[in-house]
Amino acid sequence: MVFMVSKTRTSRNEFIETEVGTIRKNWNGRIRIALAYPNRYHVGMSNLGFQTVYRAFNAFEHVVCERVFIQEPDESAARGPRSLESDRRLSDFDIIAFSISFENDYINLLTLLKQAGLPLRSKDRSPTHPLVIAGGVACLLNPEPIAPFMDCFLIGESEPLIPRFMEAFDPSKEKQLLLKELVREIQGIYVPAFYEIRYDKNGILSSFHPLADAPDTIQPMALKDSPVKPAFSCLLTPHAAFDDTYLIEVGRGCPHGCRFCAAGYIYRPPRFRPLTDLKQCIDAGSAQTRKVGLVGAAVSDHPDIGNLCRFVDGKDIQLSFSSLRADALTPELLTALKQSGVKTATIAPDAGSERMRRVINKGLTEEHILQAAENLVAYGIPNLRLYFMVGLPTETTEDLEAVVVLCKQLKHRFLQSSRARKRMGEITVGLNSFVPKPFTPFQWSAMDEVSSLKKKIKTVKTALNRVPNVRVYSDIPRWAYVQGFLSRGDRRTAELLVQAHDNNENWAKTLKASPINADFYVYRERSTSENLPWDFIDHGIKKSFLKREYRRALEGKTTDLCKPDTCNICGVCKQTNGSITPNEG
């Protein structure tokens, strides 16, 4: 093993060199893996999951893993995608492993395969082509829209799954025989070709039948009982979205169970990394850079977050947090933000009205949010970024107007607190279209129509654009529509993906010409008795629990935090005295 440098191209002839860790130059006798992220370099290198997988593959002495990204616009596509470390073609590798976090990156996956000269569909590849696999959170939710393009999926968390996969992988074996052995021997391996799928006359999934001794359901492999060392950056670069920032995962999952958020369900029970391990990671990171970022769905919920903040007190560290709840801004957290020179803090109320926050089970009151803004200004953090969603289930005109009212109230609190400091900060409001996700209580919900989302966004923007020191931006509803289509699609979705790729990502043209009705996947409210394309993945959550949460949402009722030691109703902890029986739902 040798220390190498990561070459980040800033022009055709110039490279910035940054030490990235230990990788291997010698390919002789080693399994060759191209780890592909279907987006640009600066996006992929800010993804801690991608870096964790890169480190995990390279931890094996008999493996060499190199990175591949979508080419920059100034790079010639004629050469095809090349690995960053050794400039090799994708066809030179034994395995092409895609790490996929976002559904809208699916089309880039096809671009990489096409530019590499590989057939898009698994069934059209020869035994001499590399094995094409995929993992990541998007696959953990619903791999079906890209199933025809994959030889197999690794469904689960990388820490336990990658070692098992590498122990069993044998490049000398015939591909079909190898896939059959992987399915039989390793939990979490999903080979789409080993399943026969049928639909009824209404286009609804009627059967998902395993072939070739494949399991009826896929159980994701996860480390839920024994905590592992935190995931952390193994590569630093000034050209990532989080430039020169050493990222540390403080925990996985979230106890709050917001009904729109998949992380609160597929990563149950929530697991937090031990304080001693986090301290070691901070020391290791601060030896390389001043910037340390704590990452997780619920960073401020870590039971030792106060002790962790006190640990960095007085150190020359610029500490940042991926997520903070308005009801968890303790003095220790606020002090850490202030000492790090943070000028903008982010809070996600997600909805403007108390009623709507009960529907989504957010667990935040108006006073929590207003007090958080006041406390941030008092600690010298002048700017606030807010995130809201539009198009949530049961949303009314009053709920939408409440977003405007809450932002104005926050501005008033800001003004009061800022006068004493003689500086008025800025409030940035982000509006995002709600997209239903698999394995959440809203997986059955219809998505709001694009025209309606546009009107709602315009209403909020018009009302707030007249308010000084408040800026509003939003996502694009037609892209949210595409995300909704890909989030809850089935295997037929793949055909439309290919058409969109052939049309240079012109989705309007593709949707208009395709015989596949995308509205069927996006605007249709599902029956809770319907077979869903992702039902074959068993995360341990009882479907009856998700149905109950959906009913409670429609009734405006909240549910308490996920408490593994005392609560057992969702089924993940597999205790026997829960209020929902195993065969219910």
Write up this protein.
This protein has 585 residues and is an alpha/beta fold. Among the domains are: 2-210, Rossmann fold (3-Layer(aba) Sandwich), CATH 3.40.50; 540-585, no CATH class. 32% of the residues lie in helices and 17% in strands. It has a six-stranded mixed sheet. The longest helix is centred in the C-terminal third of the chain and has 25 residues, at 397-421. It is globular, with a radius of gyration of 24 Å.
Which features would summarize this protein structure in a list?
585 residues, alpha/beta, Rossmann fold, 6-stranded mixed β-sheet, 4-stranded parallel β-sheet, 19 helices, 32% helix, disordered N terminus, disordered C terminus
Mean pLDDT: 89
Biggest beta sheet summary: 6 strands, mixed
| Total helical elements | 19
Helix content: 25-40%
Write the layout of secondary structure elements.
Layout: E1 2-9, E2 15-23, E3 31-37, H1 41-44, H2 48-58, E4 63-69, E5 95-99, H3 106-115, E6 131-135, H4 137-141, E7 152-154, H5 158-168, H6 175-185, E8 189-190, E9 195-199, E10 205-210, E11 245-249, E12 251-252, H7 263-266, E13 271-272, H8 275-286, E14 291-295, H9 305-312, E15 318-321, H10 331-339, E16 344-350, H11 354-359, H12 366-378, E17 383-390, H13 397-421, E18 427-433, H14 450-464, E19 470-474, H15 477-487, H16 493-502, H17 507-513, H18 519-522, H19 543-554
Parallel strand pairs: 3-4, 3-5, 5-6, 6-7, 11-14, 14-15, 16-17, 17-18, 18-19
Antiparallel strand pairs: 1-2, 7-8, 9-10, 12-13
Helix pairs in contact: 2-5, 3-16, 8-9, 9-10, 12-13, 13-14, 14-15
